[in-house]
Design goal:
Shape: globular
CATH superfamily of the largest domain: NAD(P)-binding Rossmann-like Domain
CATH architecture of the largest domain: 3-Layer(aba) Sandwich
Strand content: 15-25%
Helix content: 25-40%
Structural class: alpha/beta
Number of strands: 19
């Protein structure tokens, strides 16, 4: 087989781990550079949501199976697979997978293997995670196929396990009891720089095989990263209290409780924090490899937070096939921040138009069908701390942007949806949404969704403090809307409900949520 340099056609690249965090960002970047991309997928259906899925070849399979078809006619094979935390013998499983892949790549005549490993000095007593990363690199290089191994440390990017662990610890805890590993130095690198380094390793045949250590311009302890994250995120300064007896294993259980990173994965990541992961002084500069300066820590965090808050993380650590990478079920939408919900649904024997009219008749002089006194008490408390309270009432006609008591209309589409955003003083962002869908047997389904994005520990405490009141208010609110929408025996079915104004008519498009 010809090498990428000798071939007149764009290189054909096999990406393993394309459903994972880094692979899901590398594949589209290679496509943009003109490469022909094939992806190995244990579960091909997981690729369907990716906007680039129809532009790649999909080779169903796994690393413990026959890889001849997946590696056939491939110039460069990219190895981005981990087995971390998959049972007590996961490191042995990683070696077995690497050996199988290396043999298959050699037999298929692959011109180059590109592998993303981890930093750490071989002379040190490395954690199981880092030792396994190095071992996999050695196995791939021993195949005889020219291998480029990039060794990176903490990856900073929206959705990376390391970043999400850092983000949640700092966001949630103003005071942290920390073990001694927070003083270990590391050299974080932005995920965009990791992606671009991999692109060069794949597409530049002039890059010699070998091990390349890569890192950003800042060498920081984990404690320094937490403090700098807080500054970039606009949070008050975090207080760190050192406790020497807190072991990495105990720390991992705390991380699993506070963050969306599951305990088996957190245990391996935290254990690795005992090792210094800094680029060797003799290593080729990352700036030289990138052909530009890498992003600094603060800029990397700022970019990751911007993407996170917009809910647009293209990939997350939970995208990987293995169950150990799945985010905690208590925090399903962690990639866009913690989301706390109260969701209730009922079937209403009325048309969507009548239900929508009842929904848009809430508030103001009409009040709220359940717990109206509690609503007004909450408004009074809000007014006392400088919020709008309930004094704004409601306009005669709701439109996007209209105030409604202490809410503001965020989305309005007749007769389908009304979404309200709370403007009261809160340690987070609260939303109340009503969605109406026609039912197959007549009538419609009304879904009421209260959503809260907490800010820090106070936000979470606030939600759980008011959750008991939700049990009194929200079921009655849903039932009250249904009652208002159902026509009485004395009026024809087409008569609109009497509560509130007629439903608004608007041709204005709904803004994004």
């Amino acid at each position: 087989m010809t090498s990428p340099a000798e071939s007149a056609r764009p290189p054909r690249v096999l990406v393993t781990g394309a459903t994972g965090y880094v692979g899901g960002r590398l594949a589209p970047a290679l496509l943009e550079r003109g490469a022909t991309v094939r992806v190995l997928a244990r579960t091909p259906a997981k690729l369907a949501p990716a906007p680039w899925a129809d532009r790649v070849e999909v080779a169903p399979g796994s690393l413990d199976g026959d890889l001849a078809a997946a590696l056939g006619d491939v110039d460069v094979a990219v190895y981005l697979v981990h087995s971390i935390g998959q049972g007590p013998n996961w490191a042995a499983l990683e070696r077995t997978h690497a050996e199988n892949f290396a043999r298959a790549a050699r037999d298929a005549g692959v011109a180059r293997i590109v592998y993303l490993g981890g930093l750490g000095r071989d002379a040190d007593r490395l954690s199981t995670h880092l030792a396994s990363r190095h071992e996999v690199g050695r196995v791939l290089a021993a195949s005889g196929v020219p291998t480029v191994e990039l060794r990176a440390g903490v990856v900073i990017g929206s959705g990376s396990a390391s970043f999400e662990m850092l983000r949640y610890l700092v966001d949630v805890l103003p005071i942290m009891v920390t073990p001694r590993w927070v003083e270990t130095r590391c050299q974080p690198l932005a995920v965009s720089d990791v992606r671009d380094l991999l692109v060069r390793a794949v597409l530049d045949p002039g890059l010699a095989p070998g091990v390349y250590e890569v890192g950003g311009p800042d060498v920081l302890t984990y404690a320094e990263m937490m403090r700098r994250y807080a500054r970039v995120a606009g949070l008050p300064e975090r207080r760190l209290i050192r406790v020497p007896l807190l072991s990495p294993r105990l720390s991992s259980h705390w991380v699993g409780l506070v963050t969306p990173v599951p305990v088996p994965l957190a245990a391996e990541l935290v254990e690795s924090l005992i090792n210094e992961v800094v680029v060797s002084p003799t290593a080729l500069a990352t700036e030289t490899l990138l052909e530009r300066p890498p992003l600094g820590f603060d800029e990397s965090v700022a970019r990751a937070l911007r993407v996170t808050r917009e809910g647009g993380a293209p990939t997350t650590f939970a995208d990987a096939d293995f169950a150990v990478f799945s985010a905690q079920s208590t925090d399903p939408d962690w990639a866009g921040g913690t989301v706390l919900r109260d969701v209730r649904t009922t079937t209403v024997a009325a048309s969507p138009a009548r239900v929508f009219a009842a929904v848009t008749g809430l508030g103001g002089a009409s009040g709220w069908p359940a717990g109206d006194r509690l609503w007004r008490l909450r408004g009074l408390l809000d007014a006392l701390v400088g919020g709008p309270g309930m004094r704004r009432g409601r306009p005669a006609r709701l439109e996007v942007g209209s105030p409604l008591d202490f809410w503001r209309v965020e989305e309005l589409e007749a007769p389908r949806v009304l979404s309200l955003r709370a403007e009261m003083r809160l340690p987070g962002s609260a939303h109340l949404t009503f969605e109406i869908t026609p039912a197959a047997g007549g009538g419609c389904t009304l879904t009421q969704r209260a959503t809260f994005y907490p800010r820090g520990l106070l936000g979470r405490l606030y939600w759980y403090a008011v959750a008991p009141f939700h049990r009194f208010v929200f079921p009655g609110l849903l039932a009250g809307i249904a009652r208002a929408a159902i026509p009485s025996d004395a009026e024809p079915a087409g008569t609109p409900p009497t509560q509130g104004p007629d439903p608004p008519v608007t041709d204005e498009g709904s803004p994004p949520r």
